[in-house]
Amino acid sequence: KLFFADWGSAARVERCDMDGSNRTWVAHAGLQQPAALALDLVNKYVYWLDISLQSVEVVDYQGRKRRAIVGGRQIRHLCGLAVFENYFYTFNSDNLSILRVSRYNGSDVQALARLDSAKELRVYQRRAQTAVRSHACEVDPSGMPGGCSHICLLSSNYKARTCRCRTGFILGSDGRACK
User: Fold this and answer.
1) What is the DSSP string of 117-151?
2) Distance between CA atoms of 109 and 34, rounded to whole angstroms?
């Protein structure tokens, strides 16, 4: 799945398949500017930072169990969001510090380090990586991902795929080759 935030005419957090199909709202009411997203891959939760409401909220992948974790002055001027174990991590652009906050109730806010500037945070740790299983976009014997001449996108599950073409090309009738 692909998760993304949109705060155009109507702010929302959405999900879709990697090929763009099955687009679904995860959260849409009471949002203004959802920006940074972070996923809890194990428990299947989506966290987001609303920069206008100055809040961090969470919801499950189906849009249920939504709740605010923290908001207000405590988290002003934040950018970037990462989730790992019992905490979320973010960057306060006001005092240039990386913050660690309990992802369950917003308590235990700690400044970990100062940086000159940052816009995004990522946690890289073996336990944060999901195991990769064989999938429909694996390279075939001729060296093409999923048999696609340009781009292979996973579809509704890891066994299904959709081929797409780079700009200026059109997908052929076989659904694989770009012309």
Assistant:
1) --S------GGGSPPP---TTSB-TTS-BTT-SSE
2) 21
Which amino acid would we find at residue 131?
A
Q: How far is residue 132's CA from residue 98's CA, in Å, rounded to a whole number? A: 30
The CATH number of the domain covering residues in 132-178:
2.10.25.10
* Residue at 132: amino acid letter: V
Please give the distance of CA 125 from its chain centroid, rounded to a whole number.
17
Which tokens in the block code for residue 119? 């816009």
From the centroid of its chain, how far is CA 129? 14
pTM of the model: 0.80
**Domain 2-124 grouped into CATH 1.10.10.10:** no
Q: What is the mean pLDDT of each run of 10 residues along the chain (179 residues)?
A: 89 92 93 90 91 90 91 70 88 78 82 77 71 85 92 89 95 95
Residues 172 and 27: their CA atoms lie apart, in Å, by 37
Give the number of other Cβ atoms within 10 Å of residue 47's Cβ. Answer: 21
Only one residue has tokens 């940074």, namely: 36
H/E element holding 58?
A: strand 55-60
Domain ranges across the chain: 2-124, 132-178
